[in-house]
Amino acid sequence: MLFPTREPRLPTPEEALKGRPEPEFPLQERHTVLGTPLGGPYPAGLEVADFALGCFWGAERKFWQTEGVWTTLVGYQGGHTPHPAYEEVCSGLTGHTEVVRVVFDPSVVSYATLLKLFWESHNPTQGFRQGNDRGTQYRSAIYTHSAAQQSTAESSRDAYQQVLTGSGYGPITTEILPAGPFYYAEPYHQQYLDKNPAGYCGIGGTGVSCPIGVAKAEG
């Protein structure tokens, strides 16, 4: 067993599953709600953002319901195993977390606004779990695609930490890193709650408003 104790931990590259050189399944062609292609290349002027905030079924719906979002898809990021399967990610042996890729029009919705939605839609202080969902695949993360995204994400974290601390919450455990490989998830995961309206959604925030666009973190 890789995890002999009760607490989940990330595997080292040497411990991680080997994976495979190519995905075992095709990417669904179009978004079932928005009707847009899931795969790139995307139209000029659009930007990409990657967010992990717990089970990606409910998380994806939060973003596809946002004006200015062109398409969304779910996948796995932040680990070691190339082209993992869902069961492998859930084993904790790949190091990935469940991620929503958001393709958006920055002339309609800003990256800062998407960050506000991200912070307010989950509890970013819980480490390797989100609510009742427990495991390294449920950790909070932001994977950035530019220096500007990295800076904005870090500033938003610092601002939100202040208000969370004031409301009795502990340190934010969200990892904020430059985006590495993104491996799209199985077709049945894509827009899951559109295909299964009564399906499970474990997404829930702290109830603490994020002050993006209102206040800057002091430091």
TrEMBL record:
GO terms for molecular function: peptide-methionine (S)-S-oxide reductase activity. Keywords: Oxidoreductase. The gene is msrA. Residues 15-25 have a biased composition (Basic and acidic residues). InterPro entries: Met_Sox_Rdtase_MsrA_dom, Met_Sox_Rdtase_MsrA_sf, MsrA_MetSO_reductase. It is an enzyme of class 1 (oxidoreductase). Residues 50-201 form the Peptide methionine sulphoxide reductase MsrA domain. Residues 1-25 are annotated as: Disordered. Pfam families: PMSR. The keyword Oxidoreductase applies. Belongs to the MsrA Met sulfoxide reductase family. This is Peptide methionine sulfoxide reductase MsrA. Its EC number is 1.8.4.11. Has an important function as a repair enzyme for proteins that have been inactivated by oxidation. Catalyzes the reversible oxidation-reduction of methionine sulfoxide in proteins to methionine. It catalyses: L-methionyl-[protein] + [thioredoxin]-disulfide + H2O = L-methionyl-(S)-S-oxide-[protein] + [thioredoxin]-dithiol; [thioredoxin]-disulfide + L-methionine + H2O = L-methionine (S)-S-oxide + [thioredoxin]-dithiol. The active site is at C55. It comes from Streptomyces nondiastaticus.
